[in-house]
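Can't paste images in this forum, so I'm doing it all in text. The chain is below; anyone willing to post the predicted structure tokens underneath?
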Amino acid sequence: MPNDKRPPARIADAIRGFLDQSGLAGRVEQASIIEAWPSLVGPTVAKATRALAVAADGTLFVAVRTPAWMNELAMMEREILAAINQRGGSAKIVRIRWQISRER
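Text version of the structure:
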């Protein structure tokens, strides 16, 4: 057993290194948008929607409460994408797929 006098790596650094080496860092970055959704779109839109998932191709799937909201948000998609992608990072969201929520 070698005598390694280096201090132990911080767990956050070890995880970050693993994600970078495995190529998963971008996917984790994309998935963080689901949690950040309410702060990205504001409280009014957040009440009518729920971010569901992000596909590997950069598609964000969002559940919407009503067809009227879905229509309105589809017209705002370009602005919403800009707000999402201004967060920084290299993993961009390229499109949003709106779907009527099955939860009522």
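Residues 25-41 form the longest helix (17 residues). The chain has a mean pLDDT of 83.
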